[in-house]
Fold each of these.
Amino acid sequence: NAGVMQNPRHLVRRRGQEARLRCSPMKGHSHVYWYRQLPEEGLKFMVYLQKENIIDESGMPKERFSAEFPKEGPSILRIQQVVRGDSAAYFCASSQEDEQYFGPGTRLTVT
Amino acid sequence: GENVEQHPSTLSVQEGDSAVIKCTYSDSASNYFPWYKQELGKRPQLIIDIRSNVGEKKDQRIAVTLNKTAKHFSLHITETQPEDSAVYFCAASMSGYSTLTFGKGTMLLVSP
């Protein structure tokens, strides 16, 4: 039973470029959550999605950030016009009930 | 919204000692409290969780206690081993597909 998959594992972008992060939930899970972790800090909630629906995006910056979870394919977190402050580890988690299981993360570096 | 405080931020123990990490939460509606272990450069891993209908849960060397009245919960690790060294995060949410609010983490170092 494959766990939560994320790719790429590492992503380097120059300021102003777009970053696209992908997350495939565990088999049988229909709920996806995205979290951001800054160096030596905790995990901050960004957005919660079900298939084709955004349930809660209260943790996501209003500008430059968007997320989707289409009927087919992985969930995608998109960051447009990246800035140095976007450098962080981005984790997604999936759940079927209460328990959330995390993917390995995407480490974004903005140069 | 929910706010979770976690203490201590760092904890050093000798191998074989016990370690206790404490968290408090603010929203009395929260009823699901998981604990995650994160090794350097790795994903957070769910190690134990507790729901508000019980006061204590144990799994081998790990136990979690919950005091709903005081709104705090704790992680207890007995007979610590060097491989227990990691950052531990507590979290709180309302059960049934709800987002997690995390504490800031405790770096546990177990010395041989």
Amino acid sequence: GQNIDQPTEMTATEGAIVQINCTYQTSGFNGLFWYQQHAGEAPTFLSYNVLDGLEEKGRFSSFLSRSKGYSYLLLKELQMKDSASYLCAVRDNNDMRFGAGTRLTVKP
Amino acid sequence: NAGVTQTPKFRILKIGQSMTLQCTQDMNHNYMYWYRQDPGMGLKLIYYSVGAGITDKGEVPNGYNVSRSTTEDFPLRLELAAPSQTSVYFCASSYSSAEQYFGPGTRLTVT
């Protein structure tokens, strides 16, 4: 089976940088995704890693280490609108497994 | 493009009733998925399909059925609804194993 672990809640200040970690166990790794989900809304895609290293996309970056079963999502220059849940998801062949999500609160 | 659409948005069912949640995508994606999300939890995969005529079970398939007769449509059938099926249901689609696009969700209550 798969375990995907990420912190339940985090708080950060507007303008700061925050790192959300995700660890996973999988038998047939085929990619790691990060999604953002605002309360009461559907998830939206943020980033995708299938090879080790850093993927940068504007204020958002995601890192993957397949040997360690570890990823992080880095959010820079935090804005109030970044308050949301961040979901780590792993594709095991065609099966998709999501972590429970990290609820980020950005304070002024 | 409308993306992924789901109907209905809300539904209340009595225990033992049946219903079908509709999902349609207009992006010509070959992969489609059904998830449920309980309060404060991540998404759990119910069923997925890698193309018309092909469906596979996800993590929590019991109590549900799906079909994929066309590329565009992927309905989810609930037979004999139970309170444990109270949840928010999301449909999603993707081009092969790329990122998924989610519909707005269906909020289902079984009482």
